[in-house]
Amino acid sequence: MGLLDMFRPRPPIRDIPALAAFIDENAAFLTQKGIYEYSRARAGHYAKVLFSESGFKEAVENARWRAYPLGLAMVAELVEGVLRSHGGAKRQAVLDTLAAMVLAVFDRYAVPAALSSADWRDCRNELERRLGLIGIHAVKPAKDIPMPFAEAYFGLMPIDRKLRASEFPTIRNYLRVTLCNIHEEFSKRADVPGLAAMLSSPRS
After folding, report:
1. CB–CB of 87/196 below 8 Å?
2. 110-122 pLDDT, tens per residue?
3. How far apart are CA 183 and CA 141, in angstroms?
């Protein structure tokens, strides 16, 4: 990417592959940015040393892969909330297709080296469970979507629990602010009626 590319508008989200890419990229951004930035801030002047240690690198890898499906679930719920009013009578079909697409995004990735096959399968099962909960409640504001996820995400931070015990509100607020930013970007870039129609009739 060149310097000028940073100032060019992002392309619109008009089809299913673009939607899948948006969810994938933002789920990874949401979860990884929080892990890295929190760890660096907590380590302070020792961050460079900490991030060079093999044991800490392994802990970060474990954390970011376990956090990724949480990010997928959060961004999927955000997307579904924007699309819901355009689904009409086919709202459930939109949700079902969206959930299947998110699981397919997850399945693009082989079992990470930091996790066992059983761990990765458990992550997928938990993602599927969380996706199944999206349609049973009213659409949430973006800032409220992370609330059921924040504790699980905080528990993955690769810093000793005793050192981070009082900092849960910081991580929760990070998730809330970042989800609001992702919501704003999606609302600007997405062809919402078109995407809802495609998801409600995926084979058309």
Report:
1. yes
2. 999 999 999 999 9
3. 9
pLDDT tens, 42-82? 666 656 766 667 776 788 889 999 999 999 999 999 999 99
Distance of alpha carbon 73 from alpha carbon 71, whole angstroms:
5
Give the bridge partners for 190, in sequence order.
Answer: 13
Q: How many residues does the chain have?
A: 204
d(CA 178, CA 197): 28
Bridge partners for 194 per DSSP: none
Determine how many CB atoms are found less than 10 A away from the CB of residue 150: 20
What is the three-class DSSP state of 141?
coil
Query: Encoding tokens for residue 96?
Result: 């079902």
Contact 62, 114 (CB under 8 A): yes
Give residue 4's pLDDT band: very low, low, confident or very high (50, 70, 90): very low
Burial of 189 (0-12, 13-18, 19+ CB in 10 A): middle
Angle of helix 117-132 relative to helix 54-87, nearest 10 degrees? 30
| H or E element that contains 48 | helix 47-52
Give the contacts of 143 (CB within 8 A, at least 6 positions apart).
176, 177, 179, 180
Alpha carbon of 182 to those of 18, 70, 76, 112: distances in Å? 15, 15, 11, 26
Query: What DSSP state is assigned to residue 1?
Result: -
Quote the CA–CA distance of 30 and 76 in Å, as a whole number: 12
